[in-house]
Amino acid sequence: MQSMYARPGRRYHRVELDKVKQEWKALTTKEQKMRYIEDRKTFVAQSHEIAEELEWWHQELKERAAADKDSVKASRYKAVIARLRQEGFGDELDRMDQACFNGLARLDGVSRATKLTDKGWASIRDSVVEYMEKFKSLRLSKERTERLDSRFPSLKHVVYALQHAKHADSKERLYAGVADVAYMPQVRTIIEHTPADVTKDIIKTKLKEVLPELIDIWVEERRSEVIDLLRKELTVGSEVAPESPEMLQLALAFFRCTKCNRDRLRWPQVAEHRCGYWFNEPSKDLYDQRLKRHVGRTEVDTPFPGVKYRGIHCGTQYTRDVISLCGKDPNTVTYAEMTACPVRLSCRRCATYAKQTVFDWKGAIAHDSEHRNNRLDPIPGRWMVVSEENAAKARALEEAILAKPVNPQDPGYSNRVYHYHCGWCGFDGGMSSMYSHLEQTHGRARTQIKLDRDFYMTQPYEVEILMYSQVFAESEYEKEEVAAGKAFFASF
Ligand SMILES: [Zn+2]
Ligand SMILES: [Zn+2]
Ligand SMILES: [Zn+2]
């Protein structure tokens, strides 16, 4: 500040001070000096008065400049909005809330106090359009989420109700999962591409029109896949077994899952066994993500229907061996024929002189898997064929036990019958889980739930009959077991 001269507490205008010094030096008489001092005093007093006015004026100038700047900014913002409408964002702008507009106004290229020229627009266009596109994609994703979330429950409802009605008096029950159905292209079109204002009832009607046929086709596709697994089993050398739906009736048509080691899966349950599906990667697609939240928590509703029969294999040497031991040809004997087969077997690995368990063919296959330890080939001679006389006694006891009526109210019932299937979806499990599943997933009141309507028994009680040596004929415990119809005394 060359022009200023400062002393502690005061500041002077240097040029003015130098001028005063010069003038003062030029004064020679006392009168001149006195008058000069008076003149200066008057000048300073006047200056103070004017300074205040000047201050007000200066402030006003500043405010007017700021207002001008604001109005330039506002018209620039308006011009940006007009440009966006020209670019086709009118619909988007009409949907934006105040917070979104504030964000737009604060963008670096928008919040400027200069008029928007063509050149100026070209330089900021990309960042402004990017902002609009981001808003648009967020809005679309939110709307799509809302639409999916309101439609998947309708899909579930229709899928469950249709299959419940379809299977009411059917012998062959295969339930398509909600995810299986949701990925059918026609269904996906209804869910995703019906306009947002279409009501749930119309969506349901549209689904009911297409689903029965689509589910039937889906069932036939699953049947072909399972038959293919069987044909591999029955292929000898280069002679491929012909395709035939009757194959599923073969006693050999047992499948096992190498993922969970579950065996003795038969059609149609094998088609609902999807434990291998869970190994899929999480999806980035919104349809997959929302669907995952809506499907039931059952294997069948695993939302990756594209993967077929992971780890499912047909038959084993063990199955063939047991069927052969019963005197039948594994390649041709049917499940029904084997079920009527009178032969009974006893396990040489477990048998003692005191007692032996008597198994039918299915019980023997199950029992083999308890001994197996991953051996690929069965040990010859591990089974003994029970004498005809003892087999007849065992069969009589089996029949008596199975003839007792099934009543869920009976004590011990849940021990006796242990496998059930939901009558609405692919859920299967024990008695207590079935009740809670029907309540939670299908909204059935506990008191209203009925066997053979809301759920079915899928695997009848497996009867194991014991043979006790005659030596125990007078022993308390064995006598009680025999009296209860679970065992008999025999010579072996
Ligand atoms: Zn499994
Ligand atoms: Zn054994
Ligand atoms: Zn269910």
Task: Please give a structural write-up.
- The structure is a single chain.
- With 492 residues, the protein is α+β, with helices and mostly antiparallel strands.
- The protein is built from 17 helices and twelve strands.
- The chain has helices spanning 14-26, 30-86, 90-95, 98-106, 118-167, 178-182, 185-193, 200-234, 269-272, 286-294, 317-325, 335-339, 361-371, 388-403, 413-416, 431-442, 476-483; strands at 4-7, 10-13, 255-257, 312-314, 345-347, 355-359, 383-385, 419-422, 428-429, 455-459, 465-469, 487-490.
- 53% of the residues lie in helices and 9% in strands.
- α5 (118-167) packs across α8, α5 (118-167) packs parallel to α10 (286-294) and α11 (317-325) crosses α13 (361-371).
- β8 and β9 form a beta hairpin.
- Strands 7-5-6-11-12 form a five-stranded mixed sheet. Strands 9-8-10 form a three-stranded antiparallel sheet, covered by helices on one side. The chain has a two-stranded antiparallel sheet with strand order 1-2.
- The protein has a domain at 15-116.
- The model has no long low-confidence stretch (mean pLDDT 88).
- Bound molecules: zinc ion (3 copies).
- Residues 347, 349-350, 367, 371 line the site of one zinc ion.
- One zinc ion (ZN) is lined by residues 257, 259-260, 262, 273, 275.
